[in-house]
Design brief:
185 residues; mainly alpha; FAD/NAD(P)-binding domain; 2 domains; two-stranded antiparallel sheet; 5 helices; globular
């Protein structure tokens, strides 16, 4: 990221996200702090664009609560102690909005399959969904929630040096694996 006028690269960036429909309220993305509210106002006032900002709500520290998924959950998001109980979202050990939606989708599909007496399903590990589901259910002595990442999926058969082409190869492989998988449902 470079300054549009000076073309200098900044040392740090504060990202604001719109919080309303009339462009008057913004949220500082990813900001958590134990700073007292007055100190937050002072520190953020040092940023020229926020010097005269009015604060609707100050930042607070929050904790992401999650189960130790490898010891508590099966790959299909069911509990190991009671496979009729399913977890989804952040508490299941996934990190991020899309990942939480995915966990809810597959927990729901697997709960539905259970109610109908059908086999539970997990997408192929060549896909982001399948590889993340494998990650949360693989024993790990220091488990931490995870976003989807190309680092989770199994290596390609042939090494691709170019990063963009490698991601395209992973994506194409995942699409093909998902086509086969969805036909089996």
């Amino acid at each position: 990221m470079y300054h549009p006028i000076t073309n200098e690269r900044p040392f740090a960036v504060v990202q604001l996200r719109k919080e309303d429909n009339i462009n008057k309220c913004y949220n500082i993305v990813g900001f958590q702090t134990n700073l007292k509210f007055g100190e937050q106002k002072r520190v953020f006032g040092l940023i020229p664009a926020l010097k005269n900002a009015e604060y609707e709500r100050y930042g607070v520290m929050h904790r992401n609560t999650f189960v130790n998924a490898p010891s508590a959950l099966n790959t299909d998001f069911s509990a190991k102690k009671d496979t009729n109980v399913f977890f989804a979202g952040q508490i299941s050990g996934v990190e991020g909005y899309l990942e939480s939606v995915m966990s809810g989708l597959f927990a729901g599909i697997n709960m539905y399959n259970t109610l109908l007496g059908k086999e539970r399903t997990v997408p192929p590990i060549e896909t982001m969904s399948g590889s993340l589901m494998k990650y949360i259910s693989t024993e790990n002595s220091n488990f931490q929630p995870m976003h989807v990442s190309f680092m989770l999926v199994s290596e390609l058969e042939e090494r691709v040096k170019d990063k963009q082409k490698r991601k395209e190869a992973y994506s194409l492989r995942a699409i093909n694996a998902m086509k086969v998988y969805t036909k089996s449902l």
